[in-house]
Design goal:
Length: about 120
């Protein structure tokens, strides 16, 4: 869910940047009077302003909504590990802490029947 929301957020931001860069400012009509040429020829003389303004507004509102949704999901996610590696590391750390608390500061290796190496005696 969070990944899909993040993808939509990035696409909206790219669209918003592109849409703002496509639009021409209020002073662009003055440049057309001095020979710059095609002022508003793609969407007509006044049709571009209302269409582009409304589209920019809706994309901006959607961008802010996804920003708020991402902030909400980030604030309400648990700190529980999601990957298998993180879970095993957390279990190993909690096992080591339990062993240290029960035997003091010296951790004791568990006895295994497959090894030829003798185990250290437990601290009393």
């Amino acid at each position: 869910m969070e990944t899909a929301l993040l993808v939509v957020h990035v696409l909206l931001s790219i669209g918003l940047i592109a849409l703002i860069l496509i639009q021409h400012g209020k002073g662009a009509d003055a440049g057309a009077a001095f020979g710059s040429g095609a002022s508003g020829t793609v969407f007509g003389a006044s049709g571009a302003g209302s269409f582009m303004t409304k589209l920019t507004t809706w994309i901006a509102v959607s961008f802010f909504a996804t920003s708020l949704a991402l902030a909400y999901t980030a604030a309400n996610t648990s700190s529980e590990p999601t990957s298998v590696i993180e879970r095993t590391m957390q279990q190993e750390q909690s096992g080591e802490e339990a062993a240290e608390q029960s035997t003091g500061d010296v951790p004791v290796a568990p006895a295994s029947s497959d090894s030829d190496v003798p185990t250290a005696p437990a601290a009393e």
